[in-house]
Write a structure and sequence with these properties.
Layout (H helix, E strand, L loop, with lengths): L3 E5 L4 E6 L2 E7 L8 H19 L6 E8 L2 H15 L7 E6 L9 E8 L3
Parallel strand pairs: 4-5
Antiparallel strand pairs: 1-2, 2-3, 3-6, 4-6
């Protein structure tokens, strides 16, 4: 099966699909002046849209890596939005860590691996 790459530029693809697995590049929100809750909501909206383009949805997320600029300040707010976003019974493998993100205004970034429905 060939590798499918969507929204590709010279350095990366937003979506990569290979052998029934969807990989989403790190996603961030649009409004970098917003607080952690709004940045998380916007980022999750991007993830939903990209999963849909790839032919899957949030119920098929296998794992997610969440990068927070300040885990002490932002974990609770991010987690509250995350918990509301996930459907009941969906619990992907998850790692949350503090990281220096590419722009100082970015508070949260998500990278996602999901399965295509059978």
């Amino acid at each position: 099966m060939p590798i499918q790459r969507l929204h590709t530029n010279e350095r990366m693809s937003q979506i990569v699909v290979h052998q029934g697995t969807v990989y989403l590049a790190g996603q961030v929100g649009d409004d970098m002046s917003a607080g952690i809750e709004q940045q998380t909501r916007e980022t999750l909206a991007h993830i939903e849209r990209l999963l849909g383009e790839a032919g899957t949805d949030v119920r098929h997320i296998l794992s997610v890596t969440i990068y927070l600029k300040d885990i002490d300040a932002d974990f609770e707010g991010m987690n509250a939005v995350w918990d509301q976003w996930l459907p009941a019974g969906v619990a992907p493998a998850r790692a949350t860590l503090q990281a220096k993100l590419c722009e100082p205004e970015i508070l949260v970034e998500f990278s996602v691996v999901a399965a295509l429905p059978a």
